[in-house]
């Protein structure tokens, strides 16, 4: 009874929303409570959650999802330039356009499976990146990235008589500016919504069919079941998630750069998902958080800050600890990232989520409820 | 981790100029005009704090990581000097100077660092962190024009001054110039103006050039400027071929040069691309060739000593331009090289020089303005003329925030006396020769108050 | 005509590099079932074998430049030159080819350690996990190299004798002006030799037979009581060696830096997949094919017709081939399709 309550969608969503919306508070102790990083957590969380719908459920490893992120960003910035500074049309268009691209790329790529599929998606994304960086510069503004300009037409805005006289206008949601904490809350609202959709999909017959494709596609086909439409739908949905994330990125910071589509960016979301836990609901979010945290906070630490952090230690120990940890921060943050990838996959094959489950089991085990819990897990999975 | 208690959590456009439109139909779009801060209330105002934070945003990973590391060394040295530690470096030679060695406006200078990864997105994220979390009052650094323009745009939005690091594209102080962005480094237009006459003197008027150009904005900017000045003196341009950034192997672009009839190869590449294309061009025997009865020549318009190391022997005798070189003998350069050398055991790169100077210039402008309030600091920097910083008499032009100063034309040293002695100065091209009208490159600076 | 011939040479040369890297990658794929994202790092390590060998040979007596007082500036003279005069100079000159002697044991050892220490435990894990762990390893290898050698490229010149160009045109009785760098020709020949050696090894030795059988049907071979584990280690070490040698010989063409492996990684995956999973000849053929096409796409005649084609040609060809031929050029059914 209790168990069922915890597993119910409403309760999960309430807890999730509460945790996300209070992020500015609980991220304070780790120094991550500033708008830009919080926004990035939410946006890349959406990206990873969406990616997980494809990869986690169907097992199809796409190496080109960053293309949809980039397309979403470009669409949104163009919407700001041509239509209005309101983010609603920008985000809607971003989702639609990236969905269309996902349809085309997905339709072609899904004719193959396994690594052939991965390379097809990679090839499409790399083509998008190379072209955006060079010959498509009139549309993408190449290396610098697409930016707003004062003399942009903004047709809808000018229809309502809004004239920009001084400097660049700002993106807004019916008046709420998208920068700073309000930007985070808008992104957080989208994240909660995106998570809800993902939860619904995971627990729907559609999700079950995708899982069945993952476990044995051949058998599915033998039973006369056409897997293609299901796979394509999953691909498009996750492409639209990426487009949403891209549109939000551009809404919060109206600049779209080509490197958002490079294979390293696609690789990043793969790593986020695997690191957090493929096929789990929360895992990809955690993965996104960890990677963005390392990128933004660890790369900024330097020796004097480390000395401050370890100031509680006796001096000789402090010197040793600072010198060792100094290798892993600042310009060494990549080293930390690499080490973390290896450690997690070696010791926690299921990603961070497996660690969480293990800890949970351990704690419940102490109270003698381990058995009970496992039954619940099985029930949960079967549902 | 530092926390700035003073960071205002209010948005800079805290309230609206356009009448509040809550009642307007939901679809009505609204643009919010930038409102003026109540007098001198600005983002990250240090107020009563004893320190002032500067943000050093440099590439710590990726191809320009070594250059970024050198920039960071220069920044740390500048901070030391500003706080009255060390030997003072260029603070002693800078004229006019109001710097006293007691920090900026009596506040001790502290800094936060970040990794641009030489990507617009990452650079902006890092700059935002410095502004939003660490309370940085000024952002500086970077090693590419794409990053400089992206961060400069952000800084205009945030109302934070940006003192660009290494950025050479015209756009930084042309098409994409911003009121809050300042560039000490030179640009492709100035490279062209400085190199042109030297090329004419060394290689004559009757030459046919072949350009290999990195296929992005900086490359095009460079190609355009060099073409403009070489064609003006009578050179012909055989072809200008775009090469993908990070191509690695340039053989397929170099071989067509061999029998094209061109007798000069212009490599509009920087960093790794430059090292690779130059190395490979030499391997293909271009420098041993005779075309049209003349020795074949290679020109690298933007030369950096740090990057040239990668090309080894291949740079010997090759002409190019550079912003600054440690071997300069003037008082300012000598003072800087001395304190940098004593601190780190090697001479500063041109990127390090620019970054060091930019930090001092910002600090001095604050002293001149008597406040950290950005619009006042900007006004102090605009049109500021100074000397003793290594490039002779220099002016921060008010119209486009571009520094005008002497430009160096250099040549890869044939007989280096040490591992650092890679470039010899051919000519210090006087400022008057590289100056141009601000209208030439267009762009719009934008407002003082954001 | 000359232009086409020389672009063909360029393409073959590029293709040789792609094929060599892809060969090792596909060996690991086909036999061990490992998706090795650290393969690019092995290529880079090979190049740094050449760099470090050169550094060792040029350990120098430093003569201080007295005119500079602020920091230590030296003119360096390698001890080898001081001790052995011209012989020493000649040895230093041949640093890159000589470093192969060092690279062979080093790369085999690295491959051995990697397989025993890490890869072995991932044979039964999912491809996603293999990617994550090897990618992590690649980053760590890169950062370690950067720690010791910095981020800038390091000049690693070829011996003086072969630093110039060969008169290829005159040799074939074509245009006198048609020249091609000696070192690139050497690279081509070297790659062909390595590729043939690997094929011969797999074709004519019992060991190779077992490995090929393992590629075809791992389970059955295991059931036959053959110690497949030990052979796997050797195969992986060979894959590392091939990548390393490709790196050593490439150093004079591309001055090595810590990131060069990543730049080749994605490309070599595309090559392997276009060739067809589990097919060695496929990988080699795809390598040469993509190299040659890339060269031709860069010709101004072509790129003025299709702007930007030189940037995307590899990926475009990959897409077309994979859509037309489900398993690449020579892939087998069922390999890496789930």
From TrEMBL, chain A:
Bilayer-spanning residue ranges: 37-54, 86-108, 115-136, 178-199, 229-249, 269-294, 335-353
Membrane topology according to the record: Multi-pass membrane protein
Coiled coil stretches, renumbered: none
Predominant cellular place of this UniProt entry's protein: membrane
GO terms of molecular function: branched-chain amino acid transmembrane transporter activity
GO cellular component terms, semicolon-separated: plasma membrane
Keywords annotated in UniProt: Cell membrane, Membrane, Transmembrane, Transmembrane helix
Pfam families listed in its UniProt record: BPD_transp_2
CDD domains associated with the record: TM_PBP1_LivM_like (cd06581)
Cellular location(s): Cell inner membrane
PANTHER family found in the cross-reference section: ABC TRANSPORTER ATP-BINDING PROTEIN, HIGH-AFFINITY BRANCHED-CHAIN AMINO ACID TRANSPORT SYSTEM PERMEASE
Name of this chain's protein: Amino acid/amide ABC transporter membrane protein 2 (HAAT family)
Organism classification: Bacteria, Pseudomonadati, Pseudomonadota, Gammaproteobacteria, Thiotrichales
TrEMBL record, chain B:
Domain Leucine-binding protein residue range list: 51-413
UniProt keywords, alphabetically: Signal
Recorded superkingdom: Bacteria
InterPro entries recorded: BCAA_transport, Leu-bd, Peripla_BP_I, TAT_signal, TAT_signal_bac_arc
Record-linked Pfam families: Peripla_BP_6
Cross-referenced PROSITE patterns: TAT
Record SUPFAM superfamilies: Periplasmic binding protein-like I
First and last residue of the signal peptide: none
Family stated for the protein in its record: Belongs to the leucine-binding protein family.
Official protein name in the record: Amino acid/amide ABC transporter substrate-binding protein (HAAT family)
UniProtKB/TrEMBL annotation, chain C:
Organism superkingdom: Bacteria
Compartments, record wording: Cell inner membrane
Protein name: Amino acid/amide ABC transporter membrane protein 1 (HAAT family)
Chief subcellular location: membrane
Single GO MF annotation: transmembrane transporter activity
Pfam family, one: BPD_transp_2
Xref: InterPro entries: ABC_transp_permease (IPR001851), BCAA_transport_permease (IPR052157)
Alphabetically ordered keywords of this record: Amino-acid transport, Cell membrane, Membrane, Transmembrane, Transmembrane helix, Transport
Topology term for the membrane: Multi-pass membrane protein
One GO cellular component, as annotated: plasma membrane
GO biological process: amino acid transport
Transmembrane segments: 15-35, 94-119, 131-149, 185-211, 232-253, 265-293, 305-324
């Amino acid at each position: 009874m209790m168990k069922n309550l915890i597993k119910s969608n409403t309760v999960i969503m309430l807890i999730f929303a509460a945790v996300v919306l209070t992020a500015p508070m609980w991220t304070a102790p780790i120094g991550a409570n500033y708008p830009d990083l919080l926004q990035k957590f939410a946006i890349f969380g959406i990206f990873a959650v969406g990616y997980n719908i494809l990869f986690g459920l169907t097992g199809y490893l796409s190496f080109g999802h960053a293309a949809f992120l980039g397309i979403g960003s470009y669409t949104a910035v163009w919407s700001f330039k041509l239509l209005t500074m309101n983010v609603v049309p920008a985000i809607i268009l971003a989702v639609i356009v990236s969905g269309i691209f996902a349809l085309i790329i997905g339709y072609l790529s899904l004719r193959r499976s396994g690594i052939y599929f991965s390379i097809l998606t990679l090839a499409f994304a790399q083509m998008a990146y190379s072209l955006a960086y060079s010959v498509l510069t009139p549309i993408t503004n190449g290396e610098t990235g697409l930016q707003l300009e004062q003399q942009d037409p903004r047709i809808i805005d000018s229809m309502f008589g809004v004239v920009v006289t001084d400097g660049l206008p700002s993106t807004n949601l019916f008046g709420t500016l998208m920068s700073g904490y309000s930007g985070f809350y808008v992104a957080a609202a989208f994240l909660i919504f995106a998570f809800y959709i993902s939860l619904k999909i995971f627990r729907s017959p559609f999700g079950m069919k995708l899982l069945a494709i993952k476990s044995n596609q051949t058998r599915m086909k033998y039973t006369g079941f056409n897997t293609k439409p299901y796979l394509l739908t999953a691909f498009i949905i996750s492409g639209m998630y990426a487009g949403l994330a891209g549109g939000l990125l551009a809404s919060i910071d109206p600049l779209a750069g080509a490197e958002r589509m490079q294979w390293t960016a696609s690789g990043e979301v793969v790593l986020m998902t695997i690191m957090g836990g493929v096929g789990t609901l929360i895992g990809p979010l955690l993965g996104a958080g960890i990677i963005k945290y390392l990128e933004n906070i660890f790369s900024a630490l330097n020796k004097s800050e480390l000395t401050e952090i370890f100031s509680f230690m006796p001096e000789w120990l402090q010197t040793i600890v600072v010198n060792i940890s100094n290798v892993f921060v600042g310009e060494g943050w990549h080293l930390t990232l690499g080490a973390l990838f290896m450690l997690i996959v070696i010791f926690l094959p299921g990603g961070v989520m497996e660690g969480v489950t293990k800890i949970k089991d351990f704690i419940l085990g102490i109270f003698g409820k381990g058995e009970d819990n496992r039954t619940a897990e099985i029930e949960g999975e079967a549902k | 981790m530092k926390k700035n208690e003073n960071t205002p959590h209010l948005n800079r456009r805290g309230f609206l100029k356009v009448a509040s439109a809550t009642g307007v139909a939901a679809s009505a779009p609204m643009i919010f005009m930038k409102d003026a801060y109540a007098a001198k209330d600005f983002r990250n105002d240090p107020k009563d704090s004893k320190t002032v934070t500067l943000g050093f945003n440099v590439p710590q990973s990726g191809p320009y990581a070594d250059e970024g590391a050198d920039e960071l060394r220069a920044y740390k040295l500048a901070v030391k000097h500003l706080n009255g530690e060390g030997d003072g470096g260029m603070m002693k030679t800078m004229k006019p100077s109001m710097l006293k060695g007691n920090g900026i406006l009596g506040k001790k200078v502290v800094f936060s660092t970040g990794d641009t990864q030489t990507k617009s997105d990452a650079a902006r994220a890092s700059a935002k962190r410095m502004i939003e979390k660490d309370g940085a009052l000024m952002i500086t650094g970077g090693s590419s024009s794409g990053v400089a323009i992206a961060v400069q745009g952000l800084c205009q939005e945030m109302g934070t001054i940006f003192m660009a690091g290494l950025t050479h594209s015209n756009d930084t102080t042309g098409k994409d110039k911003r009121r809050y962005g300042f560039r000490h480094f030179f640009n492709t237009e100035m490279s062209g103006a400085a190199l042109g006459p030297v090329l004419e003197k060394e290689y004559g008027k009757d030459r046919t050039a072949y350009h290999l150009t990195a296929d992005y904005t900086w490359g095009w900017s460079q190609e355009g400027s060099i073409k403009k000045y070489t064609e003006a003196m009578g050179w012909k341009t055989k072809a200008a071929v775009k090469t993908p950034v990070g191509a690695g192997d340039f053989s397929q672009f170099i071989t067509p040069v061999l029998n094209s009839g061109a007798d000069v190869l212009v490599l509009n590449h920087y960093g790794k691309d430059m090292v690779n294309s130059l190395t490979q061009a030499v391997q293909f025997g271009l420098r041993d060739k005779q075309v049209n009865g003349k020795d074949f020549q290679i020109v690298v318009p933007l030369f950096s000593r740090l990057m040239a190391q990668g090309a080894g022997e291949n740079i010997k005798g090759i002409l190019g331009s550079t912003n600054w070189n440690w071997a300069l003998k003037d008082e300012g350069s000598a003072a800087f090289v001395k304190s940098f050398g004593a601190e780190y055991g090697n001479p500063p790169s041109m990127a390090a020089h620019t970054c060091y100077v930019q930090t001092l210039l910002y600090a001095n402008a604050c002293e001149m303005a008597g406040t950290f309030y950005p619009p006042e600091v900007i006004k102090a920097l605009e049109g500021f003329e100074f000397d003793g910083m290594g490039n002779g008499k220099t002016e921060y032009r008010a119209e486009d925030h571009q520094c005008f100063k002497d430009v160096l034309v250099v040549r890869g040293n044939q007989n280096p006396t040490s591992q650092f002695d890679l470039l010899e100065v051919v000519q210090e091209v006087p400022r008057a020769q590289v100056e141009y009208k601000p209208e030439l490159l267009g762009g719009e600076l934008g407002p003082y108050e954001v | 005509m000359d232009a086409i011939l020389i672009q063909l040479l360029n393409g073959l040369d590029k293709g040789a590099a792609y094929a060599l890297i892809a060969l090792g990658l596909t060996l690991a794929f086909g036999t061990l079932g490992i998706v090795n994202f650290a393969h690019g790092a092995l290529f880079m390590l090979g190049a740094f074998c050449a760099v470090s060998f050169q550094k060792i040979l040029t350990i120098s007596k430093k003569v201080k430049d007295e005119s500079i007082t602020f920091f230590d500036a030296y003119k360096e003279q390698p001890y080898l030159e001081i001790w052995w005069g011209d012989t020493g100079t000649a040895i230093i000159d041949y640093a890159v080819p000589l470093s192969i002697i060092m690279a062979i044991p080093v790369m085999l050892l690295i491959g051995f350690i990697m397989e025993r220490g890490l890869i072995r435990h991932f044979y039964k894990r999912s491809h996603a996990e293999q990617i994550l762990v090897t990618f992590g390893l690649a980053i760590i290898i890169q950062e370690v190299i950067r720690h010791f050698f910095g981020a800038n490229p390091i000049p690693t010149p070829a011996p003086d004798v072969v630093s110039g160009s060969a008169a290829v045109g005159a040799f074939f009785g074509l245009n006198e002006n048609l020249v091609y760098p000696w070192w690139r020709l050497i690279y081509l020949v070297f790659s062909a030799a390595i590729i043939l050696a690997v094929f011969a090894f797999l074709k004519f030795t019992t060991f190779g037979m077992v490995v090929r059988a393992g590629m075809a049907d791992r389970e059955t071979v295991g059931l036959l009581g053959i110690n497949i584990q030990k052979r796997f280690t050797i195969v992986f070490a060979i894959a590392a060696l091939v990548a390393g040698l490709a790196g050593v010989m490439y150093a004079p063409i591309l001055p090595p830096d810590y990131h060069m492996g990543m730049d080749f990684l994605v490309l070599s995956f595309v090559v392997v997949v276009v060739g067809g999973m589990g097919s060695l000849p496929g990988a080699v053929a795809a390598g040469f094919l993509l190299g040659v096409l890339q060269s031709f796409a860069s010709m101004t005649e072509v790129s003025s017709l299709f702007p930007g084609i030189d940037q995307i040609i590899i990926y475009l060809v990959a897409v077309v081939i994979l859509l037309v031929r489900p398993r690449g050029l020579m892939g087998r059914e069922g390999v890496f399709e789930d």
